[in-house]
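[Discussion] Sanity-checking designs against the backbone

I'm trying to build intuition for which residues belong where. Below is a structure token string of 494 positions. I'd appreciate it if someone posts a full sequence so I can compare it with mine line by line.
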């Protein structure tokens, strides 16, 4: 059983209310979830930064204690004692501008330590210097060296204490701590050497320290960078793209579209702009394609919702598809005196005279739309048009009609004599470019203009033609053998 309009409106109100609630709660829930994800990622980043900072602070503390131990004595036994402070220490060096003075291992040759000592002493700073990562030639561990400037009895900086620390334990702890398919971490030293790199080494060539995303195994990672406090190391966080924002936007758009559809249906029901198809509940509209007359159904706002094949054939030159076209574009600005009664309309369309029967569709005292049946007048009217064509063909003036596509749709015998044996469908530019230019200039003038064609010695009168809606339809051209002296074909004008 079909629902009443009032019940439909009530249902639409209920749907709109619930969809609005869903949209509101959806936005709040997405925002809450997004905040949770951001807080989780932020906490992971803080943990990574704190662990890296703690590792470097521990190395600084060991180096500072070693520097104080040097004040008691700077012999090899002291250096050996410093090397026992931490199991991550691989060697301890005492050096000056000239090179290595001594070491805990007894080795006094290390180009990297010598260069590092000269660099620190030249800067004349009291700060502990953290070196880049390098491969220790003695232990074959990757190490970082912390260099502490030392003062002599006069307070001048002339020596340094360099302690080399292994970084493998830090790398292992960080890898285990952040073993996650959705989250990766990388650490680089001052020279952009990878202290920690979570991807295969060959992928380093594709990484730039300024980029915001990184691709690995067809997976996109968002990159966030953070600098360690008072340290030359930099931490990069790789977060796998989860498309959360995309899903959120799609869901909200779907809900908004559903809300829009319900609002539209509510307005349709409220204003009575209902589909006139509801009047024919049990009729197959394809049956209208079997009749020769054009059949057009329009809703209450005058928009065509159905047109059979005959209607499409009748108006094929005007519209390719009649669906969703305003009915007034087909019937012109016709207004019925009484919208509740049927009326007959005569339409002149090209060389055809059409007769349209326009009738409203009324159900339960409501106008749902309209039904228009269109047919071509009987053959007598068509014969009269043929007689008119013969009459025009016999006129002493040349007459041709150029349609809106600038093609000749009608030409009489005299015009063919003046311009050559031209046929229908020929472009006016091909026939006479000078005449074509005059026609183009007169399209929007709205008035008849008399001009001269010097090349052919002809005069012409150009009259643009417009349809009932004021849209340009074509141009009528009358060709004369006279100039502007007032004579025509030897006959003087009165």
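Best answer:
Here's mine. Compare freely.
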């Amino acid at each position: 059983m079909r629902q009443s309009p009032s019940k439909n409106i009530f249902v639409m109100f209920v749907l709109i209310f619930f969809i609005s609630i869903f949209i509101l709660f959806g936005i709040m829930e997405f925002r809450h979830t997004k905040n949770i994800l951001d807080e989780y990622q932020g906490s992971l980043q803080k943990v990574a930064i704190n662990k890296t900072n703690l590792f470097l602070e521990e190395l600084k503390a060991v180096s500072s204690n070693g520097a104080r131990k040097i004040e008691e004595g700077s012999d090899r036994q002291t250096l050996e004692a410093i090397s026992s402070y931490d199991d991550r220490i691989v060697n301890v060096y005492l050096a000056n501008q000239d090179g290595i003075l001594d070491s805990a291992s007894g080795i006094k040759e290390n180009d990297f330590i010598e260069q590092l000592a000269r660099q620190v002493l030249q800067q004349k700073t009291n700060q502990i210097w953290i070196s880049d990562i390098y491969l220790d030639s003695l232990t074959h561990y990757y190490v970082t060296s912390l260099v502490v400037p030392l003062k002599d009895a006069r307070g001048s900086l002339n020596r340094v204490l360099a302690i080399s620390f292994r970084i493998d334990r830090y790398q292992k702890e960080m890898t285990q701590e952040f073993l996650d398919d959705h989250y990766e971490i990388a650490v680089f030293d001052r020279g952009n050497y990878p202290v920690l790199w979570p991807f295969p080494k060959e992928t380093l060539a594709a990484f730039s320290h300024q980029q915001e995303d990184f691709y690995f195994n067809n997976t996109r990672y968002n990159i966030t960078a953070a600098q360690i406090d008072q340290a030359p190391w930099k931490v990069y966080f790789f977060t796998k793209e989860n498309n959360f924002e995309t899903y959120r936007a799609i869901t909200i758009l779907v809900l908004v579209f559903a809300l829009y559809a319900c609002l539209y249906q509510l307005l349709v029901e409220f204003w009575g702009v209902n589909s006139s198809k509801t009047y024919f509940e049990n009729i197959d509209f394809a049956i209208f394609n079997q009749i020769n007359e054009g059949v057009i159904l329009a809703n209450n706002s005058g928009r065509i919702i159905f047109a059979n094949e005959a209607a499409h054939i009748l108006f094929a030159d005007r519209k390719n598809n009649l669906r969703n076209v305003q009915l007034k574009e087909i019937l012109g600005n016709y207004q019925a005196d009484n919208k509740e009664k049927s009326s007959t309309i005569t339409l002149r369309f090209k060389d055809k005279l059409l007769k349209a029967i326009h009738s409203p569709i009324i159900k339960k005292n409501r106008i749902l739309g309209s039904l228009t049946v269109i047919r071509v007048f009987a053959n007598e009217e068509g014969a009269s048009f043929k007689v008119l064509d013969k009459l025009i063909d016999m006129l002493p003036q040349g007459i041709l009609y150029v349609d809106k596509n600038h093609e000749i749709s009608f030409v009489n015998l005299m015009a063919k004599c003046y311009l050559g044996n031209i046929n229908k469908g020929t472009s006016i530019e091909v026939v006479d470019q000078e005449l074509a230019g005059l026609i183009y200039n007169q399209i929007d003038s709205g008035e008849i203009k008399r001009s001269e064609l010097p090349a052919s010695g002809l005069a012409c009168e150009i009259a643009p033609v417009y349809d009932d809606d004021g849209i340009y339809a074509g141009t009528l051209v009358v060709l004369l053998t006279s100039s502007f002296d007032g004579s025509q074909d030897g006959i003087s004008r009165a």
